[in-house]
Write a structure and sequence with these properties.
It contains two helices and nine strands; from the N terminus they run H-H-E-E-E-E-E-E-E-E-E. It has 191 residues and is of the alpha+beta class. The longest helix is centred in the N-terminal third of the chain and has 47 residues. It comes from Noviherbaspirillum sedimenti. One of its GO terms (molecular function) is copper ion binding.
């Protein structure tokens, strides 16, 4: 049988190993938290550089009026797409249109809240090909701010835009796609 002195002598190395392991686990946990915290600005920067899922700040900066020089020698086909990530129907009212660069155009998207509760939602645009994003100038868009949809409410939401005449000549078709998603879960019912 072991004496208490022998037992304590055997526990000392185990305690050291346990303390060392605890230290490593704390470091790993802090690093994981730091990685998660730092991922948001890194993701935003990657999206900004690649032109993917750019939110409205750059869309709202319109340099010049843009409608002063319509390039009638070119025709661009603009295709529209709507994706719903939530309890509603969301779609463009037209599948595609043809425009001249510099020409001001308006299209409408329809959304219907199919729930008996109010919902806050946001639309995020994306463009194909990616190089077209810098030349797609929106003057007015429902994607600039959150939308509050009342219970069973239907809305028609306009997008007013023009295509910058500096769009490369090899781009003949642009797809504007929106993903419409619920922002912060259920909201309180309207009184």
């Amino acid at each position: 049988m072991e004496t208490p002195k022998q037992d304590a002598a055997q526990d000392a190395p185990t305690r050291k190993l346990n303390a060392k392991m605890l230290g490593k686990l704390v470091v790993v946990a802090v690093m994981m938290f730091g990685f998660g915290y730092g991922l948001i600005p890194v993701y935003k920067k990657i999206c900004e550089i690649t032109g993917i899922n750019i939110l409205t700040p750059n869309d709202m900066k319109v340099e010049g009026v843009g409608n002063t020089q319509v390039d009638k020698s070119r025709t661009i086909t603009i295709e529209f797409d709507g994706n719903a990530q939530g309890p509603w129907r969301f779609r463009p009212t037209v599948a595609s249109i043809q425009v001249h660069p510099g020409e001001m155009v308006q299209v409408v998207y329809e959304v219907v809240n199919t729930q008996s509760r109010a919902i806050d939602a946001q639309a995020i645009p994306s463009y194909a090909p990616q190089q077209a994003a810098a030349h797609f100038k929106k003057m007015e868009c429902f994607c600039f701010k959150q939308q509050t949809m009342g219970p069973n409410e239907a809305k028609q939401m306009p997008v007013v835009f023009f295509i910058d005449p500096a769009l490369p000549r090899d781009v003949k078709t642009i797809t504007l796609s929106y993903t419409f998603f619920e922002v912060a879960g259920p909201t309180k019912k309207s009184s």
